[in-house]
Predict the structure of Lipoprotein.
Amino acid sequence: MAIKPVLIIGAALLLGACARVGQEYTTRLNARQQAYAAAAGAPVQSFHYFSLWSWEPLSDEQLAVYTRSNEAWLLDLDGKCRNLQFTNHIGLTSSVSEVSARFDRVITGAADAPCFIKQIRPVDIAKLNEPQQGKPREVEEMQRPEK
């Protein structure tokens, strides 16, 4: 009978830890969304696409794609692209190596409807990385235990 209260307390602690991790993830994701929005330029109709260097999901309606290490695009999607944050790979449709807003889409491999690209904005990589430059790393100081 004493095991039941221990299990309940353990479950409560586990749920509390999961909630804190989820809150930290949401805070970090919101910060990334704001950083990309601040670094994004005016909408463009299309961009040249030869290969996908990297990508970063920002929500089910927005992601950043890197066509080179120094060239990124912020894609706003028409509707929700379900589970975009959890998919392992994506692809982009294109025509003659060009991805166009309101025509091309993001492919996730899911059985859902395609994720059409509503808007494309170029990302100023230097501006995106600017807040990180010169910013001191946060260090948590702890007192050494006495012997």
